[in-house]
Each structure stands twice: as structure tokens, then as C-alpha cells.
Amino acid sequence: MAKFVGERNGVDVKHESLLKVTEPHDSLAVNGHSSKMAASQPALKGKEPVKELTNGIKTTSNSEDSKDPFCDPDNPTVIRFQDIGAAAYNIRGGVEITPCSRSHMSALTGMEIYFKKDFMQYTGSFKERGARYVLKMLTPEQREHGVIAASAGNHALALAYHGNSLKILVTVVMPLIAPMMKIQLCKQYGANVIVKGKDLSESKAIAMRMAKEKGLMYVNGYDHPHILAGQGTMGLEIMDQVPDADAVVVPVGGAGLIAGIAVAVKSINSSVKVYGVESERCASFSAALKVGKPVFTAAQPTLADGLAVPVVGVNAFATAAPLVDKTLVVNEEFIALAILRLIEMEKAVVEGAGAIGLAAVLANLAPELKGKKVVIPLCGGNIDTSILGRCLERGLVADGRLCRFLVTISDRPGGIADLTKRLAGIGVSIKELAQDRAWLKADVFSVQVKCVCETRDEEHCKELATLLNENYSSVYFGSVMF
């Protein structure tokens, strides 16, 4: 049994692998890689050996509607390299092998960055990998009845599209807050779409109840074992395309993607670091690591809405926790900046959840990766057009290229002209300008001017602030007084 001893998230861990190192004659070859490994799949302390993946439903003594038979907290399923190999074999030809190309941002970040562009899948996200595999592995009886899922976006699209391709009826329960565009696309792909529930948790409860009543199999989008194995095929492709990678920086929501990628990557080369990245608005994986099991974490509105999963999957956590080397938590401004950078420098439109890996790099949360070869999955591109505009503006603010100020100037003729002349003198472009006299407490011959300006960069923004403070006595820069 292979042993692993090391530091994960600041805590010393020691575990034994559940998988024996395979002999050359019976190793599983996937994309040219053997399943032989230095350190393979570990077990959680105190757990019995995990089940192998099967087509049937696991039995459970609890028959409540809310219980998912595939996701048992008391007996989680840990996926293995062989499971990912089986997934790769079954989804071949049905899912794109997406490019993993060197980024234009390598010089900017001080790392040799490669972007795994899974937003180029037909439905715009990596979710197709797991969705197709879980559908391919249905028993004849399950195929006849169909499957059901609760999702507000990418999981629903992936199931709907591949269900239509494989002639399997797919029902998706989508919350009222789901984007209309995604609802319509699911219908176009032939899915039975039910828009019900104020949020995803209510939609899930409805879907679970329908699954029991109608004999449908419920498919958890981030924790069903076959979903995890399917997502792991991205890890196989990464190691095939960048075999000498030093690290992989993976977005984390329900933890299904990082679980699959970690197993694939660590099985092929145990020295490759696997980092997880979460939004500060819902760091549920970090919270789970602290207590050793999935726990509820309140989710706040975030640009990375696809990662706002309050409780990580039990199977995903059991699989990923021992393999993830470090977790990073990113704030909103760097997510917006990452979206902006990808559009400007990579010509790639990526949603917040898909761009968060780059956000961690831009925030310099992993300085130890400087000079290393780093792969970052861009795992989703289904961003709403209305949200995209807001993200770009916030990215410009974070980049110091959009700034605002409040200044009190003379209200006599020439006052505004003098201000605009000074701004033009240093090359600042005025985007918005508004005057306020009613609420000003200074003399009646003064006016307060609110201005939004476009600057070249952060240094140019500081130059503007210096100019205003040198020439006017009352200046508020940034968010103060707004």
C-alpha cells in the first residue's frame, strides 16, 4: 500500500492508499498514461473500504425524499483512477478534447501559464464530461424511465444536450432565478423543464420528491460518483497536453471537478501540486477542511455564482480532501479583473466561476508558483450578457483604469472649464460628470462635482488623485462619500 505524508492546508496528514500499485501487465492505459502511481487514492480515516462504482442504486435505510442514495454521508464513495479511465473510454467521441494552450499572460504573472479551455465544449462548460458519462452508465431500466436533476445552469444544459443525443428523457427543475436564456436552451435540447422553487435548494427538494414518485434517477451535478469520474477526464487531458506541469489550479464549488482532476493528476504524477480556488462569498470547501467533513456555509451573491454551493459533495470531499495541496480564497475584485484580462488578452469570454483560478494568480495568492508551469482550467463560458458588462466595469476599477471622485470647485464662470482642462492636461478621459449644489454646505458660490474618469492604469489614477489634491481643498477619491 502506498503511503503519503505531507502538508495539506497547513495540517500534517498521513494516509495509506486504497489502490495497490498495478503491475505493468494489468495497468490501465488512458491517453497513453498507465494507472501505475507513486501515491494513489487515499481513504478517510476511520472509514471502511469504499464501494466501487456500479450502475445500480446503493441501498440506504433512510427513505426520506431528501436522501440521495448515491451520496451517503455515512458511506461516501471515493473514485479511483480506473473509474476515470472508464469514463474517458465511454465519453470518447461525445465530448470535445479541448485545447490547453500557453497563455499570453505568462510574462505578466511570472508563471508559465496554460489555460485548459473547457468553455469550448458545445454547451459551454466542463459539465458535459460527467453528464455524458452518467447517462452512458444507466441501466436499461434507468434509461427507459429517464433522469432528473436540479440546476440553474450548466449542469442542466449538459444533461439536456447529452440526454437528447443519447435519446434519454431528462427532466430539469430550475429555480425561478435561473437565466431565461438557459431555460430556453434546455427546452431546445429536448429536456422537460420545470421552473419551480425560489432557489436551488427548493428546486432540489422538488426534484428529489419527483424522482421518488416517478421512479427517476436523481443526478447530483457535483457529487454523483459517475459525475466525478467524468470530470476527472479533464485531468487526463491536462497531463497528456502538459505532461511536465508543476501545478493545476482548479475552481471549487461543490468540489466535483477538483475531486476528479486531483485523482487523475496525482495518479499519473504525484509530484504535481493541486490547488483549489474558492470565492470568499462561499468558501464551503475550506470550511469542510477545517472540521473534516462537509458543513453548511452561507452563500452570498458572487460573480462566481456557479461556485456558490453551500455544502460540498460528500463523495467529492472524501475524494478530494486528502489530495488537494492548498486552498485559496479570492475576493470579488480579482474575479472581475480575471474576466477582464481573459477578454482583453486571451479573447476568451469566461464566467466568474471559470475564471477564478486566474483570479487567484492575479491576486498573488500562490507566490510559490512563480517560475513554475501552471495549468488553469477555464471551465465555463456561460456568463449572462447583462452580468458581463458589470464584470468588465468592476474589472476596470480593480485595474485602476476606471475611477471616480467628488470635488468642490468654484461655481463662477470657468470653474468647470478649469477642472476639465486640468484633467485633459494629464490625459484623463471623463466618462460621467454631475453637479450638485443643493446639498453642499460650503459657500453658495461653490459646486460639488461628481466625476467618473477613465485612466491608463493604477499609476495614472494616482497621478489624478495628486493633481486634484494639489489644486482643490475638498476632494474625496474612490468610494468615500458616494
Task: Please describe what this structure looks like.
The structure is a single chain. The protein is α/β, with parallel strands linked by helices and 482 residues long. The protein has 2 domains: 1-113 and 231-398, Rossmann fold, CATH 3.40.50; 400-477, ACT domain (Alpha-Beta Plaits, 2-Layer Sandwich). 37% of the residues lie in helices and 18% in strands. The chain has helices at residues 81-91, 106-109, 127-136, 140-145, 154-165, 180-188, 200-214, 225-231, 233-241, 256-268, 284-291, 314-320, 332-346, 352-362, 385-398, 415-425, 458-471; strands spanning 3-8, 11-16, 100-102, 112-117, 147-150, 170-174, 192-195, 217-218, 247-251, 273-279, 326-330, 373-378, 402-410, 429-436, 446-454, 475-477. The protein is elongated and about 85 Å long. The model is unreliable at 1-32, 34-52 and 54-63 (pLDDT under 50).
List strands and helices in order, with pairings.
Elements: E1 3-8, E2 11-16, H1 81-91, E3 100-102, H2 106-109, E4 112-117, H3 127-136, H4 140-145, E5 147-150, H5 154-165, E6 170-174, H6 180-188, E7 192-195, H7 200-214, E8 217-218, H8 225-231, H9 233-241, E9 247-251, H10 256-268, E10 273-279, H11 284-291, H12 314-320, E11 326-330, H13 332-346, H14 352-362, E12 373-378, H15 385-398, E13 402-410, H16 415-425, E14 429-436, E15 446-454, H17 458-471, E16 475-477
CATH architectural group of the largest domain? 3-Layer(aba) Sandwich
User: What is the CATH C level class of the largest domain, in words?
Assistant: Alpha Beta
Low-pLDDT residue spans? 1-32, 34-52, 54-63
Strand content: 15-25%
- Largest beta sheet: strand ordering: 3-4-12-9-10-11
Number of DSSP E strands? 16
* Total number of helices: 17
First-to-last CA distance: 62 Å
CATH fold label of the largest domain? Rossmann fold
Q: How would a textbook summarize the main sheet?
A: 6 strands, mixed
Shape: elongated
CA gyration radius, whole angstroms: 25 Å
Task: Give the % helix.
Answer: 25-40%
- Category from helices, strands and their pairing: alpha/beta
Number of domains: 2
Please state the average pLDDT score.
86
